Amino acid sequence: MKKIYPKKWLELHPYKQTNSVDQYYVGIANEIHKRLYSSTIADAFEEEENIRYTSLCLAAWFEDVISQTGIWQAFTAECRKRYGAYLPFYPIKGDYFPDEINLEDIRFLLWHHIQYLCRGISAINPENPGIEQTAQEIYGLLAEEYETAPENERMQEFLYHSAMGEEDFFRYREILDWFHYQCYFNIENVAQCRDEAERLLDDEKITPEMAETLIYATRTSLTFKGRRNLLSLTSPEWLALIGKAHPEHQLWGKVKARENSCYLLEKEDDEFLYVKDLCSEDEGELEKWLKTIKEILDDPQPDAIDFLDTIKLNLFASEIFVFTPKGELKTMPQNSTALDFAFSLHTDIGSHCIGAKVNHKLVPLSYKVATRWRF
Fold it and tell me: Which tops the pLDDT comparison, 76 or 311?
């Protein structure tokens, strides 16, 4: 049986150096490891590395309860709101305290880890006697430590050290990234991200440079939208629930993930970037004009021709129409450049082009294009 070292404990935390508090919880993780390793359910973990990871997660859960960082409390509160019980599966007796350690919590966490390892193979009975017996042994250990266990002030500081405003997006992103990929609460997300990265790297159509960009985009998308967390909530949804207990973090509840799209940078100032969603469902000027023409043709009026002439005067107010070398029509925002056109064809073309030819003449990439020009 291999010992758990502080390096592994740090993988569940947002800092890089341990202190005496971390050393204490590493010791707790090793004590849990001994009990799991010798338990009747040890074989269910398949590999000792899985036993060590489960031991670390149980120690981190204990740390969360002791430090009152509120992650587990948010989960049990949401379970009670949805299902009328603090936890799935287990009948809760009158001596269950949501802000303390409970035997049922440990039983659920053990079941959750084993079920994850057996996904797609078999369903694990939450009432398994081996899980209950092992949970009782671990609960006995933690109950003895409960009154003297130290709070992790660094985790409190990381999550709640000051009020968060709209300008603190990158701080929020740091917390979200830690919660999604490192927190004991989420045990499937690292594997999901790794599987997606391997899929992209194995695709022969994707160059290494493209793969690097796509892997970053995939990781970001999973962080905001992945639903392999408990109760199938996204990580932003979980942070919104965790932040409810902290009035200064109410903005966590207002974070929304935008749909994947393509955006055109229109301008910027010292504070903001101003972009236009090129894939929005809003009708463009061309679509509006064609719709109006169809309506006129379906029900012609005496002054229809004059009306169409008026529309044509305003048709190109906000959009232009240019042709590719193959004669395909492309709709672009007014004031678009040759580089914008290249990106509209494909991101790889936009990333690698060094010049453009418009109407058979070479122009710089910053050259603004106009309607009916051919590239």
Answer: 76
